[in-house]
Amino acid sequence: MNLKLIWILAAWFAFAALPAVAEEVAPEQGVAWESLTEAQQKVLAGQRQTWNTIPPGRQQAMAIGAERWGSMTPEQQAKARERWNKWKKLTPEQRSKLRERWKRFHELTPEQKDALREKYRRFQSLSPEQQRALRERWRRMTPEQRQRAIQRRAPSGRPRI
After folding, report:
1. CA pair distance 67, 119, nearest whole angstrom
2. Residue 76, CA atoms < 13 Å, CB-side half-sphere
3. How many domains does the chain have?
4. Which of 28, 113, 117, 158 would bridge with 154, disulfide CB 3.0–4.6 Å?
5. The dihedral of CA 117, 122, 128, 129: what is its sign?
6. What are the pLDDT digits (tens) for 28-85?
């Protein structure tokens, strides 16, 4: 297995199924339930009773998410539901790690993001057997070996991910 595939795997583990980080949105005021559109209220109906107890930044993120939900195709909604269900099953530590990776991803240049997305697409194009083999090889590597593999694949000046 070549190191390019290991880099793809590292990128995949780092950025797969990243959730939107609501904590980054921090408006001064919350969102009044009555100011939500009917469509947003329908999506957020389960939050109606506790809406006023939700922190303002979280309310804002939920309102934006509910608006975005309405513009999604059924397939996109199904994928979003799947990601949400995976997110809910994560431990607080796993969520924290993913938030940090998300933050680092957004610090990359557009070119670096595009390159990472392309590597992820290439990983996804591998057969399930190839993906499993690559994941297993990555798991067997020591942290030092992983770091060396990443550094060999990263162009100079590129932040490590």
Report:
1. 30
2. 7
3. 1
4. 158
5. negative
6. 688 999 999 999 999 899 999 999 999 999 999 999 999 999 899 999 999 999 998 9
